[in-house]
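*Target chain*
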Amino acid sequence: MSNKSSETSDSSSNEKTKALPTVINFINGGLSGMAATCIVHPMDVIKNQMQMSHGKASIGTTMSNIKSAGMSKFYSGLSAGLVRQATYTTGRLGIYNQLGDMWRSKNEGTPDFLTLAIMGAIAGSCGAFIGTPAEVALIRMTSDGRLPPDQRKNYKNVFNAFLRIIKEEGPTTLWRGSIATMGRATIVNMSQLATYSQAKIFFNTSGGIPDGIGLHFSASMLSGFLTAFNSMPFDIAKTRIQNSSSSSKSPTSISIIIKIAKTEGITALWKGFWPTYCRIGPHTVITFIFNEQFAEFYRKIIMK
């Protein structure tokens, strides 16, 4: 069995694989996430608009509403999405890499699942706090199109959104829902980063899938499914908190989850699941494949 180490996702240890410099690990993580976002961003737009609907919202209806406003609306908030990846993903993958390097420098073999989950949780929560302003801007920009024309903010780009939010609502608004965002990121990264490595080993040993893109795809899609299912209730709570422009104290994620379950039904906590899964799955595989290829390129060309 091949235990080729991925500096960002694979927990397997390989003494022959050269560790990337710290700054390259962070840059690699950010670029990987940004490349994936350019492809899956329309699913983010659909997911956010479905989650902001307090009634029944199907994928078909949501897509029709977006199309009626113009196909370009599928990429509303892309600049915010890219800034989010440049902050959140750079932080979470960079920190995860460093924690993994620290563990391997003091231990032999492969970290167990619990260790991987703890490292993923720490990396995710730290990265989420860094990326919360971009997250707030992304939610506002992708949800703006569902508002009546006279209530729309019509942000020009992510930087315009930052400036207007600070001017109109105060700078602390950029970190509105940061606790909810960090909570969701903890669940996401425990699910995604830890299960991806375990899924690769499972599919390789039990499924007989050789190391390569096929293995990465299979592992990431399973990881993406578990990540989407586990994080959806927290994702919906985060989305509603960050889309609120109220100056009053933000409610907690738990209180929103309970309210949604009572008023809209328990299944509403997984509203927008398939757009979320269709985003997380491809985003995971594209991120990891790009990351591994960039790392290999850097080792062969720069570190040779």
About this structure: The chain has one domain: 22-302. Residues 1-16 have pLDDT under 50 and may be disordered. The first helix runs from residue 22 to 51. The radius of gyration is 19 Å.
